[in-house]
Amino acid sequence: MSSRRARSRQSTSSSRITDEQINDLVSKLQAVLPEAHIRGAERVSAAKVLQETCNYIRSLHREVDDLSERLTELLATTEASSAQAAIIRSLLM
Amino acid sequence: MQVAEAFKHAFLKQMLLGFQASVVSPKSMGFQERKSAIKLSADVAMAVARGTRKWTRGLIAGLSKEHQNRSFLQLILGEQYERLMKPCHSSWKIPRCKKIVRRSLRVCCRRKKKKNQVGVLARTLVAKRTQELKILVPGGESMDGFSLLDETLDYVVSLRAQADLMQSLLTTIEASKLRSHSKGTLPERKASYVGN
């Protein structure tokens, strides 16, 4: 028991990561979530931020899957050369 | 938070390679196969565009675990494949901040737990979400605390950019199709520049 406590005390003192750094990350995460526009600067709990982050990642995965499907459909009916030209145009813009 | 211009360029370039590789493969590829190739190209493009991060390594490693992906990956990555597949040589661990996970696990071992009931619930939820995040973020299983949050933020920003870039590709290709169709029927317009 005492060794566990000693270890935890030790890791806290040697950890260079502060609470402030964690809070900073959590608030940055909050800022990239879709609800950020509505919320503004109002702080939300870390648990809520993490929950919404999980939901957001899942929805982004679905979005990319859907876009992959649409791109596949589109490319099936497009000349390879014009698809490539379109990408190159995007690169130049 | 936004990705850099360089990310967008690297992404599009890599997607171009992926498109070319998808076309070169036998035309007898079914829809699902072609979709998988496109999706694979998009994920590779995102990882390459971002550079070296824990999650990009995790992503490439995860993708190449599937045997059928490997030859496609080598094709579109070229010499970058070997470099990206190298195991992470840094066994040096960032001083683990287990604060988030540990606080939540150190639930009932302390005195005066009744006073801390609200705090305890919050910490348990955080631990639960942290576990979920480890599954959602590529390479997350080996990440902890601060590192996981940091990688998550970076990953989310990159995912958003990936989706936006794929959407703009769709739009651009559709627009160029419309233009090439209309050219044949309407009198030619003067340099209709598809700009902003």
Topology overview:
The complex is a heterodimer of chains A (93) and B (196).
Chain A: H1 2-14, H2 19-32, H3 36-39, H4 46-76, H5 80-92
Chain B: H1 5-24, H2 31-50, H3 54-65, H4 70-77, H5 80-85, H6 99-105, H7 117-136, H8 145-185
Family (chain A): Belongs to the bHLH protein family.
Pfam families (chain A): bHLH_ILI
InterPro entries (chain A): bHLH_dom, HLH_DNA-bd_sf, PRE
Characterise this structure.
Chain B: InterPro entries: IBH1-like (IPR044660), IBH1_N (IPR059002). The complex is a heterodimer of chains A (93) and B (196). Chain A is 81% helix and 0% strand. Chain A has helices at 2-14, 19-32, 36-39, 46-76, 80-92. In chain A, α2 (19-32) packs across α4 (46-76). Chain A is elongated, with a radius of gyration of 23 Å. Chain B is mainly alpha-helical. In chain B, 68% of the residues lie in helices and 0% in strands. Chain B contains eight helices and no strands. Chain B is elongated. Chain B starts with a helix and ends in an 11-residue tail after the last helix.
Quickly list its features.
heterodimer, A: 93 residues, mainly alpha, 5 helices, elongated, B: 196 residues, 8 helices, IBH1-like N-terminal domain-containing protein (chain B)
Q: What's this, in brief?
A:
Chain A is mostly helical.
Terminal-residue CA separation of chain B: 22 Å
The two chains with the largest interface, and their residue counts, are:
A-B, 53 and 61 residues
**N-to-C SSE string of chain A, H for helix and E for strand:** HHHHH
Q: Count the DSSP helices of chain A.
A: 5
* Topology, number of strands of chain B: 0
The separation of the N and C termini of chain A measures 63 Å
Helix count of chain B equals 8
Oligomer: heterodimer
Q: How large, in whole angstroms, is the Cα Rg of chain A?
A: 23 Å
Number of strands of chain A: 0
Mean pLDDT of chain B: 80
- Measured by DSSP, the beta-strand proportion of chain B falls in under 5%
Morphology call of chain A:
elongated
Structural class of chain B: mainly alpha
Low-confidence stretches of chain A: 6-14
Keywords (chain A): Growth regulation, Transcription, Transcription regulation
Pfam families (chain A): bHLH_ILI (PF23174)
Protein name (chain A): BHLH domain-containing protein
GO molecular function, one term (chain A): protein dimerization activity
